[in-house]
């Protein structure tokens, strides 16, 4: 049985100039309602000062309503500018791999 993701990729396959959105593009789209269209490599967003500061994301709205937010992930938050996006859009506390490593939550053999 094919997964939904495999089906999605196949459906995009008829149009070779378009790639199906990756996880980060989907996340950005879900958070902002906009497609992620940038002229620099995705993984270069961590070197930017801001991540689409004029865009209103769900995190911005939740912060305005008084919510305290956390973004948990098992990799480093700076990759692809995810941490920067969270800081710029809702002042979200990022608890990534580096955060938990600093807290001593991993065995010595990891990281």
Please describe the topology of this protein.
Layout: H1 4-12, H2 23-32, H3 58-64, E1 70-72, H4 82-88, E2 93-95, H5 97-102
Parallel strand pairs: 1-2
Mean pLDDT rating: 79
**What's the β-strand tally?**
2
Calculate the terminal CA-CA distance, rounded to whole Å.
Answer: 36 Å
Dominant shape: globular
Query: Main beta sheet: strand number and arrangement?
Result: 2 strands, parallel
Q: What Rg, in angstroms, do the CA atoms define?
A: 16 Å
The percent range for helix content is 25-40%
Strand content: 5-15%
User: Helix and strand string, N-terminal first?
Assistant: HHHEHEH
| Number of contiguous helices | 5
Commentary on this structure:
The chain has 111 residues and is mainly α. The chain has five helices and two strands, in the order H-H-H-E-H-E-H. A two-stranded parallel ribbon has the order 1-2. The longest helix is centred in the first third of the chain and has 10 residues, at 23-32. The model has no long low-confidence stretch (mean pLDDT 79).
In short:
The protein is mainly alpha-helical.
Key features of this structure:
single chain; mainly alpha; two-stranded parallel ribbon; 111 residues
């Amino acid at each position: 049985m094919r997964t939904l993701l495999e089906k999605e990729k196949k459906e995009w396959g008829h149009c070779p100039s378009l790639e199906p959105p990756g996880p980060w593009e989907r996340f950005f789209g879900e958070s902002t309602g906009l497609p992620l269209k940038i002229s620099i490599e995705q993984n270069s967003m961590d070197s930017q000062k801001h991540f689409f500061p004029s865009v209103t994301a769900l995190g911005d709205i939740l912060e305005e309503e008084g919510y305290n937010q956390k973004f948990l992930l098992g990799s480093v938050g700076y990759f692809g500018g995810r941490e920067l996006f969270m800081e710029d859009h809702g002042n979200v506390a990022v608890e990534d791999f580096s955060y938990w490593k600093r807290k001593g939550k991993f065995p010595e053999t990891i990281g």
